[in-house]
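Before the break, one more example. Copy the sequence into your notebook; we will annotate it together after we see the structure.
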Amino acid sequence: MDIGIAVGDVRGPATLAEVIGQVQTAADAGFTTAWSAQALGWDALTVLAVAGAQVPGIGVGTAVVPVAQRHPLVLASQALSVQAAVGDRFTLGIGAGIAMMVQSMFGLPADRPARRMREYLSVLRPLLRGQTVTHHGETLTAVGAVDVAGVKPPPVLLAALAPAMLRVAGQCAEGTITWMTGPRTLADHIVPTITAAAAGGRATPRVVAGFLVCVTNDEAAARERVAGRFALAGQMPEYRAMLDREGAAGPGDVAVVGDEDSVARQLRRLADAGVTDLLASPVGSTDEQARTTAVLAELARCTHIPAR
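Here is what the structure looks like once it is written out:
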């Protein structure tokens, strides 16, 4: 299991210089990938293009960019531009977006998310390969091509939690990205569902599991802080379904929290579950986040965490 780290908005408010510094620190520490989520601040693609161009030696990726408000012709142009800026070190993570936000903030439809995403990917993937599309479909119209010379198409990962979306990820993308999804759910639901969907000659899918991580001597207090800070996210139907599968009351129960040995054991369990990439988002006090980053960096320098 490779170890990457979150940068940008998910870590809290930061200037562009500070985000670039986070990516540099991640590269110096030996993390495989710096992941940026698309929230309500920085544009994740633009930030990664700038930061990745200045910091060599580390992959960069979005985890994730909601696609409802980005037509595939637009997203393909943006993604290939990032790939060119960072020298083919970019992974494009996309998602349908939280339905409540898609509908209330953008006034866009959020019904049939798996059907919409399958059609979206059927257009996006050829565009990333430089092909011309002429598509008049059920949920999408796209006619044209994107010409960015000398750039490899980036791998595409799809945020997927429900069975239908996991099947789309296994059949139409290189893997999935999860969030607030515990180890039992990863082992019993996420990994087997996407692996079965990818059967028949496709490469084994990547499973990038996003976790809040805190190395601390006060586990109970740290979990309580996570539960409070992320309470609203835990109520979103998409994440609530995964918490219910895990038998977790809220986000605090699925965070990776404890001292150095405990966190290492929890990460081993994720590797055993079939997770190929950890997307770690350090949380806690300044000292706890520094301690967490140091522990994760030490594990990352071991190249990867093998499953037992």
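The chain has a mean pLDDT of 94. Residues 214 and 285 are 9 Å apart (CA to CA). Try to locate both features in your own notes.
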